[in-house]
Amino acid sequence: MMTAGLWKAILAIGGIVAVAAFACLFSLREGELVVVSTLGDPRRVVTQPGLHARVPWPIQTLHRFESRLRVMDLPATELLTSEKKVLVLEPFVVWRTNDARRFLEAVGSRAGAEAQLRDLVTSKLGGAIGRLPFTQVISTEPGAVQIETVLEQVRADIDRLARAELGVAVHGVGLSHLGLPLQNERSVFERMRAERERIAAGYRSEGAERAAGIRAVAEREASRILSEARREATLVRARGEAEAAGVYSAAHDQDPELYEFLRRLEAYDRILGKDATLVLAADSPLFEPLFELTPESR
User: Fold this and answer.
1) What is the average pLDDT value for the chain, to the nearest integer?
2) Could you give the CA distance from residue 170 to residue 97 in angstroms, rounded to a whole number?
3) pLDDT tens-digit profile of 282-294?
4) Contacts of 188 (CB under 8 A, 6+ apart)
5) Nearest to residue 76, comparing CAs of 92, 89, 94?
6) Which pLDDT belongs to residue 179?
7) Adjacent-strand bridge partners of 35
8) pLDDT at 298 over 50
9) Which of 171, 184, 12, 194 has the alpha carbon at shortest distance from 86?
10) Alpha helix positions (H), 43-146
11) CA–CA separation, 298 vs 68, rounded Å?
12) What are the chain's domains?
C-alpha cells in the first residue's frame, strides 16, 4: 500500500507540472493579437486563436491587443471653410489594430492610439474643410455637397499614416453632426430660404412662359383646323347646291308642271312651318293646285 507521504509527493509533483504547463502555455481568443517579448524585446506576434507555447515570465512577457473594429467619437470642433465661415463638426473614426508589434512600440495602448488618431483627424479634416467653399459642405442644391468625397480622402490619408506610424488601420471617418454655430444658423437658413425661393420663382416663370408658348401654338393650330373645316364645308355646300340645281333642272325638263307644283308645295311648307294653322278663303291662290285639273284628268 502507498503511504500518505507518497501520495503527498505525487500530488506535489502533479501540481508543479500543472503550474509549469500553465506557465508555458497561453491561449489566444478570436479578435485578439499577442506580442511575445523576450527580455523586453518584442520577438513574436501571434494572430491565430488557440493554445500557444511560451517561456514563463519573467523571460517572456505577453502583450494582448484587440484586433476588432473600434469606434472613437471626437468632441465637437469648429472649423473654417475657404470663405472663413464657421462650421461645427462632430467626427468619429472607425479603426483597429493591424500591426501589433508596431502598435506596441508606437502607442502601447488603446488610449495612446486614440490620442494620436484624434490629432490626425482634427488636422486632416480641418485642412480639407478649409479648402472647400461653404456651399460644397452645406447646400440644398442636388450634387453640390462634396463632404462624403472629402471624408473618404481624409480617411485614406489618415489610414496611410496610421498604418506606417501607429500599426493602426483606419476603416472609416464620418460625421455624427454637421451644422452651424447657434448664432449663425438663423441668418444662414434665411439666406438658403431666399435662394430656394429665387430658384422656385425662376422655375415658375419658366413654366408660365412655356405654357404660354404651348397655348399659342395650340390656338394657331385650332384656328388653322377651323379655317380648313369651314373651307371644306363651303366646298361641300357648293357641290351640294350645284347637284341640287342639276336635279331641279332635270326635273323641270321632264315635267315642267309637276316641277312647278312641287316647288310651290315646298314654298307652302316653308311658309307654314311645323304645327301651323292657316285659315284661307276657298278661292285663295294657295288652293289652285288642288282645284286646277288638266283636261286629261277630267
Assistant:
1) 81
2) 9
3) 666 656 665 555 4
4) 138, 180
5) 89
6) 84
7) 45, 63
8) no
9) 184
10) 100-106, 110-130
11) 131
12) 20-66 (no CATH), 70-180 (3.30.479.30), 256-298 (no CATH)
d(CA 126, CA 180): 15
CA within 13 Å, CB half, 101: 11
Is 2's pLDDT higher than 60?
A: no
Distances from the Cα of 222 to the Cαs of 86, 170, 217, 228, in angstroms? 60, 69, 9, 10
Helix (H) or strand (E) holding 80: strand 77-80
Q: Hey, what's the cell of 61?
A: 512577457
Q: Is this model's pTM higher than 0.70 or not?
A: no
User: Cα-flanking dihedrals φ and ψ of residue 87, to 5°?
Assistant: -120, 150
Which spans in the chain are helix H?
A: 4-24, 100-106, 110-130, 147-165, 182-254, 256-272, 288-291
Half-sphere exposure of 86 (CA within 13 A, CB side): 11
State the residue for C-alpha cell 416663370. 205
Instruction: Name the band, by pLDDT with cuts 50, 70 and 90, for residue 20.
Output: low
Residues contacting 46, CB < 8 A, separation 6+: 28, 33, 34, 35, 36, 52
Question: What single string gives the DSSP state of each residue in 196-254?
Answer: HHHHHHHHHHHHHHHHHHHHHHHHHHHHHHHHHHHHHHHHHHHHHHHHHHHHHHHHHHH
172 in Cβ contact with 96 (< 8 Å): no
Query: For residue 108, what is the enclosing H or E element?
Result: none
